[in-house]
């Protein structure tokens, strides 16, 4: 066995790399931590002679050491604690290497004694680090002790340093080495490709994995199941090559809960709680796990001990005769496997040589003096033994079977004439590719033969009829009898609380889960799966019981407002007048505002709600996602008139609200300002087929000539007919030319819309404008399916005009067109007709509004009517009254409590989320009563 892997070990945690090894075999390792050090040790699984308990797996190690002098002591204390923990689980300590310095290689070997074959754990310890995750490159080899491969750097075969000795190495050589050999663990994107070529050897896909921290929900991760080794591994995403964890199924108890679509895998040292996103994926993963578990083959010692992990409550007796194998036959198959390994090395050498002779990479006139590697093209005695003197990381394969094709540049350049002629290089390259194809077939057929032989000589173990959960002491779950011959365990629940927790398989997965790097996943004891799902599903709006006050008769609305009577002040002039003053205590003049509040500005997102109506009725999930994306982009069009950029909306009073009931569009909307410092709003809109909510926190950063406008807080949508959840963070925009020149707003960067249910997403990219080209309005969208592959579908157009769906770059149907503007929009604040109607009191709102509604704000109304002086006076009075209320509350030790929204305590860290209160305390229920008795009159002066 040979592997080269990039491992990630998270803070306050440890990584276990299981290695099945037979008796009289050697484990050889080379370790290089990157940037930061970590600890390393080797343990052995007890096999059938012992079982692993599952104690508290939280690796947190409290420490008060803050100085650098105490770092080593803290590391030793944490390592000692980890050793005790692993020993308490039942693992046998073999060797504790200790600290491995950053960017240095630590090499070593361990010879497995007779009768001690089994599963060995390579433990990478980072429990002493409170915040920093570590990455480490591991080169791992196992081979018969009496027959070490010549390419393996052992003290008997080379001049390498003794085990445990360290040496410096450049990272570039590691990168060159990685991926050259098929014995090296392939990155996930290659594995995805292999899935279609050889579906019987590997299965890949996305699953939800419970996060490490309590109450942090689930994270979407990429999993790979290798049938040849029956090992389940996972990575951050399909494009990541860094291994985050792996569990051999022959050591694990696997349990499935069909009701919740959850899969629990307990290796004894860690527990993975996984969840499929839908029933089809659950069935597929259950089937392949059954297949892998049925064909799993543990490394067995001479006494026939199976390292199969057994639960303490399981009384499972395995017949001894199934472990009796013919020793001579085992030796023969070991030799076959060794020969296949040598053929693989030869094949890999040919592969590298084929790449070196590829005409695409060969210059027709190479320099005559030196080759690409800087060595002389003529033979030199110093180069003959170069492989023995170079570091193991840089050494090429020196096996006799592949020595003729050692992949050095000089092997190509030493021949008379070299490969200076491109046609000769092309002929050689074609021959090498044909040879490589034959070698690939030989290795594939041999590997299949070895796998079938192993399965025939080691039939599947009988499964337990019943067993208890490894977490039975802290949950009501139990393992029921196994159905049929399935090696997996079925979980049933005695509690009815789970009834409503799995309405959607990924309801509690946040939008940044596909990208976040901060969440490693060690099972948190005591964390309730049902509770975790429930708390995160609360972030998404549920279908309301009714849409009161809808339905209503149609009313007519205005399509324009009076033109402003004064121009907004110059920012330079305003700053000049206030030189030396604290600008945070100075309010901008009312003439710098438009006659709309920030709450009403937020409601402008509803202008194109008809897109959501259509999306909810579409049968194809990709079409639904593209329509949701078009809706997300459509909200940017409110800034398409440049005059809109020279004024800002009114900052609402704390507790100010705004309702919008559109009987013609079939939705209702309510917003409230829930926080003043920082400014945060909360709103929810409901329709027959969808609901959306957001708790936006707008902020600005000034960068000299421009201002960056950032809106924190995900917008979340539920499509009721399908139950799908979608989320995205609004695009970042820039206000250009704030000091001088024509002001305008343009979105920048990318915006990702995520289908929380399926894992598919769209990435919309805003074309960057040139230095002198003015505003850029083009936007393109690509759709990425749940497996991470880019689809042929997408969007193209402008965020100011139209968006069309595309297939392979060719435009087809129009999904969105910008709505009408008011007449002579540049002279009327640059508003759309939709925005112009927001401050109007129609028969729907007349005598129905609470005293906090933005339509009733006197300074805003005065500005709309053209009475700027009155607006300025009232604005100052309202702001002073608000300060007085805040001082009174601070004096009495009270804090502001929003009337219509409540804070979600279980929201993701760093994202305050507010949920509309339901029931009798709800806004729409109070509107029916019409009393508004508990509402604070925030406009009273």
UniProtKB/TrEMBL annotation:
<dbReference type="GO" id="GO:0005886">
    <property type="term" value="C:plasma membrane"/>
</dbReference>
<dbReference type="InterPro" id="IPR036598">
    <property type="entry name" value="GOLD_dom_sf"/>
</dbReference>
<dbReference type="GO" id="GO:0006887">
    <property type="term" value="P:exocytosis"/>
</dbReference>
<dbReference type="GO" id="GO:0030011">
    <property type="term" value="P:maintenance of cell polarity"/>
</dbReference>
<dbReference type="Pfam" id="PF15409">
    <property type="entry name" value="PH_8"/>
</dbReference>
<feature type="region of interest" description="Disordered">
    <location>
        <begin position="452"/>
        <end position="532"/>
    </location>
</feature>
<keyword id="KW-0445">Lipid transport</keyword>
<dbReference type="GO" id="GO:0032541">
    <property type="term" value="C:cortical endoplasmic reticulum"/>
</dbReference>
<dbReference type="InterPro" id="IPR041680">
    <property type="entry name" value="PH_8"/>
</dbReference>
<comment type="similarity">
    <text>Belongs to the OSBP family.</text>
</comment>
<feature type="region of interest" description="Disordered">
    <location>
        <begin position="352"/>
        <end position="425"/>
    </location>
</feature>
<keyword id="KW-0597">Phosphoprotein</keyword>
<feature type="domain" description="GOLD">
    <location>
        <begin position="1"/>
        <end position="142"/>
    </location>
</feature>
<keyword id="KW-0813">Transport</keyword>
<dbReference type="InterPro" id="IPR000648">
    <property type="entry name" value="Oxysterol-bd"/>
</dbReference>
<dbReference type="GO" id="GO:0034727">
    <property type="term" value="P:piecemeal microautophagy of the nucleus"/>
</dbReference>
<feature type="region of interest" description="Disordered">
    <location>
        <begin position="849"/>
        <end position="869"/>
    </location>
</feature>
<dbReference type="InterPro" id="IPR001849">
    <property type="entry name" value="PH_domain"/>
</dbReference>
<feature type="region of interest" description="Disordered">
    <location>
        <begin position="51"/>
        <end position="77"/>
    </location>
</feature>
<feature type="compositionally biased region" description="Polar residues">
    <location>
        <begin position="398"/>
        <end position="410"/>
    </location>
</feature>
<feature type="region of interest" description="Disordered">
    <location>
        <begin position="148"/>
        <end position="180"/>
    </location>
</feature>
<dbReference type="GO" id="GO:0032934">
    <property type="term" value="F:sterol binding"/>
</dbReference>
<dbReference type="GO" id="GO:0006897">
    <property type="term" value="P:endocytosis"/>
</dbReference>
<dbReference type="GO" id="GO:0035621">
    <property type="term" value="P:ER to Golgi ceramide transport"/>
</dbReference>
<dbReference type="GO" id="GO:0005829">
    <property type="term" value="C:cytosol"/>
</dbReference>
<dbReference type="InterPro" id="IPR009038">
    <property type="entry name" value="GOLD_dom"/>
</dbReference>
<feature type="domain" description="PH">
    <location>
        <begin position="200"/>
        <end position="294"/>
    </location>
</feature>
<dbReference type="InterPro" id="IPR011993">
    <property type="entry name" value="PH-like_dom_sf"/>
</dbReference>
<feature type="compositionally biased region" description="Acidic residues">
    <location>
        <begin position="510"/>
        <end position="523"/>
    </location>
</feature>
<keyword id="KW-0963">Cytoplasm</keyword>
<dbReference type="InterPro" id="IPR037239">
    <property type="entry name" value="OSBP_sf"/>
</dbReference>
<keyword id="KW-0446">Lipid-binding</keyword>
<feature type="compositionally biased region" description="Polar residues">
    <location>
        <begin position="156"/>
        <end position="165"/>
    </location>
</feature>
<feature type="region of interest" description="Disordered">
    <location>
        <begin position="294"/>
        <end position="315"/>
    </location>
</feature>
<protein>
    <recommendedName>
        <fullName>Oxysterol binding protein</fullName>
    </recommendedName>
</protein>
<dbReference type="Pfam" id="PF01237">
    <property type="entry name" value="Oxysterol_BP"/>
</dbReference>
<dbReference type="GO" id="GO:0120009">
    <property type="term" value="P:intermembrane lipid transfer"/>
</dbReference>
<dbReference type="GO" id="GO:0097038">
    <property type="term" value="C:perinuclear endoplasmic reticulum"/>
</dbReference>
